[in-house]
Write a structure and sequence with these properties.
Blueprint (H helix, E strand, L loop, with lengths): L2 H4 L5 E15 L4 E12 L4 E9 L2 H6 L5 E14 L5 E17 L2 H7 L11
Antiparallel strand pairs: 1-2, 1-4, 2-3, 4-5
Length: 124
């Protein structure tokens, strides 16, 4: 469970993250594009979670994102049931708006801008 998000349930705030890659969700009749963001941080630079997947909405499309781009956006923290049997409660960021692409940014620039927190291992 994303405990940092749990403490902000229902709150709308500004967040940022780095684009990792794009993917797809397949449904019976259609497919939705998705985007993976890593190192999700709040407006104060505190790490909220290591990664989140988002549906590529019109706002994300307009931001013209590439892997490695720093993205900032407003979103609301919401609970959801995850897993195939939908029995695990977790938290996500929903209704992203005001999406801004700040362009390519190095790891060093990102982490120094975010209060000097160290990089977490994992998502490249």
């Amino acid at each position: 469970m994303r405990t940092e998000l749990q403490t902000q349930k229902g709150k709308r705030s500004r967040f940022s993250g780095i684009v990792v890659r794009f993917g797809e969700k397949h449904f019976r009749a259609h497919t939705k594009r998705t985007v993976l963001l890593r190192d999700i941080r709040d407006e104060h630079g505190h790490t909220i979670t290591d990664h989140l997947w988002f549906n590529v909405t019109e706002g994300f499309e307009m931001a013209v994102m590439d892997p490695g781009d720093l993205i900032s956006f407003d979103a609301r923290v919401k609970p959801y049931w995850r897993g195939l049997d939908h029995c695990d409660l977790d938290y996500k960021l929903s209704y992203p708006t005001n999406i801004e692409n700040h362009g390519q940014i190095s790891h060093e620039e990102y982490y120094s801008a975010m209060n000097g927190e160290e990089k977490k291992e994992g998502y490249a």
